[in-house]
Design goal:
Blueprint lengths: L2 E5 L5 H7 L5 H18 L4 E8 L7 H10 L4 E6 L5 H5 L4
Parallel strand pairs: 1-2, 2-3
Length: 95
């Protein structure tokens, strides 16, 4: 593989519980750390990335996500915005 990307919307387990029910930040973080180590050990020109969807609930977490990425040898972060496809999502308050 030339590139591996993980979908992660926050580094806060509390917010993750509300955004992605059943997600475990520690498991995700461990998988990212393991992938970074494997990439370095393989000495192959591959990239490791994070992908996040920016929402009202997590936009303030972006600095911590960038810090986490830097600490874990992540090569890039791809951020996109949530598509407000229903009035319910548009009206949803921040958590």
């Amino acid at each position: 593989m030339d590139s591996v990307s993980f979908s992660i919307d926050t580094v806060s387990q509390d917010k993750l519980n509300r955004l992605r029910e059943g997600s475990d930040f520690n498991l995700i973080a461990n998988n990212i750390e393991t992938s970074a180590k494997s990439k370095d050990e393989a000495k192959k020109d591959s990239t490791l990335g994070l992908e996040t969807v920016i929402m009202k609930d997590n936009f303030s977490d972006l600095p911590e996500l960038v810090k986490f990425a830097a600490e874990n040898d992540v090569d890039y972060i791809l951020a996109s915005h949530v598509v407000l496809y229903t009035p319910k999502i548009f009206a949803k308050p921040c958590i």
